[in-house]
Amino acid sequence: MNDENLQQIHNELAEGDKRMDSLTDEVTAIKLEQAQFRVELAENTNATKRIEANTAEMLDVFESWKGAMKVLTWIGKAAKPLGYLVGLGASMAAFWAALKGGVSPK
């Protein structure tokens, strides 16, 4: 081996070292970035859990309102025929009172 070959081998090894250093720097940067993503993911997960807990209470309120609206709808549906019956009873009572009072129809 002559000096020229040794110099070429030395240059190639130096280039390989530079590439390895570059790759090491990239891997280190990726690891740091991944660690930051893990921290942000943990923060996001905690925020999501807080939101879920807060909205669970709101969901319970909405579901109870939904049930209340169903009951009020049923009461409304029952009130309409009941109103007709009360009106019929009132008109019959008025007719009976008119007959007892001596008021004749025109």
Automatic annotation (TrEMBL):
Does the keyword field hold Transmembrane? yes
Give the transmembrane ranges.
82-99
Its keywords, alphabetically, are: Membrane, Transmembrane, Transmembrane helix
Know the name of this protein? Uncharacterized protein
Q: Which organism's genome codes for this protein?
A: Acidovorax kalamii
